[in-house]
């Protein structure tokens, strides 16, 4: 059992992008000089927990901006960059709809004080009235979503932070007590 865990950890470390491989990409190359400090690449309990929190919060950003938002926030927080980028991948085409629906519910609950408000139905897509009806739908749907997405992001970031922090403590505790017994 212990050998399987060690093998799995080595595999994860092997798959984790290095500084050189990450900034070889033309998209990230302009940011390379900002991330030359060792604290962006050293993994410990504090940096792992904050990196997961950054990734969980930034993962709710619209698709193409997730990595760049995580890159900027990881720079500001001075946390482990590869883990922050990797954690944003919890959102994907299968999870976006449930997460954004949950964010809508949170936003409508906070804005209107009513939980479980039904999401407005998408208007019929007719050529003549498409612009005005669709715009009204976006306004109705958008306000609660604009409130709910950051709130859900903060909730997920807080949960992720404490899960990693306490999980790291638990693993360290078990490892210490296992070594004491032996």
TrEMBL record:
Pfam families on file: DUF2062
Keywords for the protein's UniProt record, in alphabetical order: Membrane, Transmembrane, Transmembrane helix
Transmembrane segments: 51-77, 145-168
InterPro entries in UniProt: DUF2062
Boundaries of every DUF2062 domain copy: 29-175
Entry keyword annotation includes Transmembrane: yes
Keyword Membrane tagged: yes
Name of the protein described by the UniProt record: DUF2062 domain-containing protein
Natural source organism: Snodgrassella alvi
């Amino acid at each position: 059992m212990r050998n399987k865990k060690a093998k799995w950890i080595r595999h994860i470390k092997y798959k984790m992008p290095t500084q050189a491989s990450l900034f070889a990409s033309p998209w990230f190359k302009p940011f390379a000089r900002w991330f030359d400090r060792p604290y962006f690449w050293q993994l410990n309990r504090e940096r792992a927990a904050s990196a997961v929190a950054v990734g969980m919060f930034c993962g709710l950003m619209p698709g193409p901006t997730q990595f760049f938002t995580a890159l900027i926030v990881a720079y500001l927080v001075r946390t482990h960059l590869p883990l922050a980028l990797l954690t944003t991948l919890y959102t994907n085409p299968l999870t976006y709809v449930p997460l954004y629906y949950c964010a809508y519910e949170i936003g409508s609950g906070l804005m209107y004080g009513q939980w479980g408000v039904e999401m407005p139905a998408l208007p019929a897509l007719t050529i003549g009235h498409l612009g005005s009806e669709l715009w009204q739908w976006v306004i109705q749907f958008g306000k609660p979503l604009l409130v709910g997405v950051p709130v859900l992001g903060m909730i997920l970031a807080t949960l992720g932070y404490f899960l990693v922090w306490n999980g790291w403590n638990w693993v360290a505790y078990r490892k210490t007590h296992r070594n004491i017994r032996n």
